[in-house]
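Appendix B, Record 12. Input sequence as logged:
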Amino acid sequence: MRATHAEWSRLPGVSRVHLGPLADADVRALVRELRPRDLSEAVLRGVVERAEGNAFFAEELVAAAHTGGWALPTDLADLLLVRLDQLDEATSLVVRAAAVAGRRVSHDLLAGVVLVDPSTLDLALRAAVDGNVLVPVGTEGYAFRHALLAEAVYDDLLPGERVRLHAAYGAALAGGTFDGTAAELARHARAAHDVPTAIRSSIQAGDEAMDVGGPDEALGHFELALELLAQGDRIAGVDMVGLTMKAADAAVAAGHAYRALALVQEQLSCLVANTEAEALQRARLLMAVAGVGLIVDADIDVLQATSEAMRLVPAEPPTALRARVLNMHSRANAHLRRDVEAARFAGKALRMARDLDLPDVMAEAKTTLARLDERAGDPESSLRTLQHTVAGARAAGEMSAELRGLFSLGGLHYELGRLDQARTIYTDAALRSRGRGRPWAPYGFDARVMSAITAYAMGDWDDVLRIIDVSGESPPRLAEAVLAAMGLSVAAGRGESRAVEVLPSIQASWHLDGLIAVLAGAAAIDLLGDAGDLAAATAVHDDVVAMVGQLWDKPDFLARIRLSGLLLGQLGSETSRVGEAQRRQLARRGDRLAEAASAAARTARNALGPEGEAWLARVRAEHSRLRWLTGSADPAEGSVTRPDPAAEASTGADLVGKASTGADLVRAWEQAVAGFERFGHVFEVARSRARLAAVLRAVGRPAEARAQVALAREVAERLGAGPLLTDLRTLGGPRQAPAEGRRRPGGSGGPRADEALTAREAEVLALLAQGRSNREIGRQLFISAKTVSVHVSNILAKLGAGGRTEAVALARRRGLLRDESA
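Logged structural output:
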């Protein structure tokens, strides 16, 4: 249409606007508008890259991705090929040959593949450029005007034509006349059915990709070589076990640990250790299985794997393989808390590694010994050892050992409640892993997750959102799920109720990683509970407990304390919305949750740490509050739930069955506040202060209650914690103004402005509407029955009602009560 456009442009009333490509951020926004929830970051990034700023292309690619396809949509391909149909035969031949090279091709390489004379080639290239199919790139080559155009042309090639062109490119690159990479040669050789060349060049391409920090790309090359080897005869000089180990290492570094496990187990099933050499190969594979088993929640007996490897590798003479087997065996024992055996084998590995000068094994063994020191009650010794180990591994250039050491060092600080130091170390580890091109590798990515968890506890929620943002990255599915689960925690704290819509996509990964289930489940309990859906919140809690208990083979896992505390809080809030019979059911459920927390604390023994102790104190306080609100106990009658002092002294865990006074309920919440202050969890300190304020007000200590409300409100406002701010307004809000536009006959439809219901009277009125007695209202609002009676009298007077039933009827008529059935 160029000629037509030129004529139009000369008309006085016509102006021409050039529409350039959209920025990547704008294409991303368009895709998210089209599919707000159901596209992963990897797919979204692929759409952005392939669309190259063209909005129409982006929409077509999104539609194809949504239907499960990644191929170019037929209608879009036909549209793109219109340009090709307008070219002459010679130009079309050159363009088709260029498409086989990829998005770009050098002039010399294209000339070496297209067997036409130079003048014909130049004319064809000029026509392709004039036809907006190709564009010059620098002074040496050409590129397709749009990546999708190259895809469309390539897909339109006939099978024989495609094979011949790939063979020509492969021959040109293999001859050494033209510059090219091993990856390019591998692609052309495979498409040309040159299997030996494809295998060797794929392995070389994988090695090159690993050297430059591209484990995802390397994995593709190694897996291609394995696939080709599995289809035919072995290629001389290619070690299948060695290649499998390379592929597994690349998969782990790329964040695909389960893929690595599948690759190693498949090769292990094919290997029979009939000779000494095969026995050593089997030992290498077994160590790889154990290594993956230590970082994933898979049903793998790591100790059995390392024990067999120990039998297969001779102790004499000392070898590097034996040292690595000893090291892995010590880690397997430590994983199962067989600390004496773990220390013994780690010591042997360390001594052998020193003799053989194996810095990576030395660093790994020292890290294991340091964590054992911590478990033995000597964290300071562990700290010194880890610092020395990290420095040594960094100096030796052993990145994997350094990252494990850094992650362990950060974990030690975190478990001691030193969150500032932990956050700094986690951030350093994550940045170093990313800097080496391995952002999803074990310990590096784990450090990123822990830096987000630590930032959340410290009250830096905006930084959490920055850490978990994967825009422009290509995260593995599990990595994206765990980061999304962490984001759900911030959403829950801020009351973003729509965030629960992403829960089903995250739940799909629960059976693979217990941390995802714990993080997402904890957030969902609050999101659903705050929305008034206690049944859904309870179901999520039960699903997490069942899934993680089975996954970790530990029904009383430590995180159950936190999960119990969160659900206990929601049970307490639910008591204001249900009748007497349902409140008794809530009380029984609360007793079971408290018992579960007790069991988890007993199992943990001395491993609770400041965080675990804080959540245990929270469970005690929430359980006491629930029993009060449900009528199972009453501070005035000395029957609030309290931990057994003997059990508290030993495990701090027995939470059910003892009586106390109102002062003990105050003390329970003070202990919860103090526990989270010691650990440094800013938000949970504020939430606990809000509960403490309610109890202080109930026992007649309003000044102290107001002080707690003020402290909690400052945190809630800074974090944007909507649900907590709502609770605090109830506790310490101003007197309610009359609803706008509501006036009695002769000027009002409700109380007079000088007789407006106070915040407390509004609460009492709402509970009156549920048929609660004064005693029940008092339990719910943490005030005495006598005080409730005073409030009821004031309500009757202000509404001009002769009794409670009439007061409720008048309040409904005047719009002073929310319709709970709506």
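The first helix runs from residue 2 to 9.
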